[in-house]
Amino acid sequence: MPTCLETTGPHDRFMLRAAKLALRGRGFTAPNPCVGAVLAKDGQIVAEGWHKAHGGPHAEVECLADARQKGVDPASCTLYVTLEPCNHQGKTPPCTQAILAAGVRRVVIGCADPNPHVAGGGAEALRAAGLEVVLAVQEALCLDLIDEFLIWQTTARPYSILKMASTLDGKIAARGGRAQAVSGPESQADVHRLRAQVQAVIVGGNTFYGDNPQLTCRLGPDGLPHDSKGGFCQPLAVVVTSTLPKAYSTFNLLRQRPGQVLFWTSEYSAKTPLADELRERGTLIWGLPELHGPGGQGLAFAGAFERLCAEFGCHRTLCEGGGQLALSLARQELVDEFVLYLAPRVLGDAEGKSLFAGEAVQSMEDTLNFRLAVAESCGDDLKLTYKPRRS
């Protein structure tokens, strides 16, 4: 996993591999965190595992099973795991029992389990059994892996991802606003991998009317998202707009899947005959309260996110802009992860559409501040993943 973190310690290389494995389970383990694990011996990784699905074996158990299949004795290895092993009975037995039964003598842990009901229990149980336990290796990276788990544990809303693509001068479109790709084909394919990991894709009204998007996940036969029964499952399409379209207009979303479309609009617009006509086609309309005052203007989104979680089981959402919606979500502290595809292009037009827009800010003291979590190449583009600064 390419990151902005240094890898100078003796354990870092193995923990970075475990973290990369953990991401393979993203989108499938909710509401549990994604976790990765490796066994290392004589400076080499000899077995690997990750938590693949909610209710399935945890990463440590998968890794130990991989070792058995390869004829590797775990007792002669060091186990690296991104999250503190569980010491309680849930949908699966405690991982600490599996570790002890395998004869592992040393465990290196990325970050402690933040769940207040079990915090520290796994590491303490292993130490009490005589194992050497090393804590907080690549801790910041491993904490980022469970950010969504923390959101699910402490709020009633989904984990919110904001995705945008821009030129080097921060423009997402030319002044005419005509739908044109900013990023390269590799980044565009990567967006569909993001869509495969969420249950709802959100766009603003300008994007809906200007780009006529489909908001579907198109990964190909071997990479399509599936529901718990193995069937194909597209994310819900959410459009934020104060101006609702006609029910039988030619927009792709309304022609192709009106029953999978949800409009977030003002409470007034949600009560109009136009809204009723859309509902007759199976389209959902939610009226959202409006904000007024120093905290911002526009629609208040927190309650709508909570409804997505409660009514549709949405654990993750992906917002794809535009600039005004992106800024509104950020101002309302509803951006848990910001993925930016930075294309090596310069528009050079001050009137081009900006990444974030909608306010007249006079001072740098009023900025929204993020921290860089991951930086990696994506074709000719640079994929930058930002997180809110930790309090």
Can you walk through the features of this model?
This protein is α/β, with parallel strands linked by helices and 391 residues long. It has helices at residues 12-22, 59-70, 95-102, 121-128, 139-145, 147-154, 185-195, 205-211, 252-256, 273-280, 302-312, 323-331; strands spanning 36-41, 44-50, 78-83, 106-111, 132-134, 159-166, 171-173, 200-204, 236-240, 261-266, 284-288, 290-291, 298-299, 316-319, 337-342, 353-354, 370-378, 381-388. Strands 11-10-9-8-14-6-15-18-17 form a nine-stranded mixed sheet, sandwiched between helices. The protein has a five-stranded mixed sheet with strand order 2-1-3-4-5. A two-stranded antiparallel sheet has the order 7-16. 42% of the residues are buried.
Helix fraction by DSSP (H/I, runs of at least 4): 25-40%
The residue ranges in which pLDDT falls below 50 over 5 or more consecutive positions are: 1-6, 225-230
Rg from Cα: 23 Å
Distance between termini? 25 Å
Discrete helix count:
12
Strand content: 15-25%
> Order of helices and strands, N to C?
HEEHEHEHEHHEEHEHEHEHEEEHEHEEEE
Strands of the widest sheet, in order across it, are 11-10-9-8-14-6-15-18-17
Structural class: alpha/beta
Shape: elongated
Largest sheet: 9 strands, mixed
Key traits:
391 residues, alpha/beta, nine-stranded mixed β-sheet, five-stranded mixed β-sheet, elongated, disordered N terminus
In a nutshell, what does this entry contain?
With 391 residues, the protein is α/β, with parallel strands linked by helices. Helices cover 27% and strands 24% of the residues. It has a 9-stranded mixed β-sheet, with helices on both faces. A 5-stranded mixed β-sheet has the order 2-1-3-4-5. The chain has a two-stranded antiparallel ribbon with strand order 7-16.
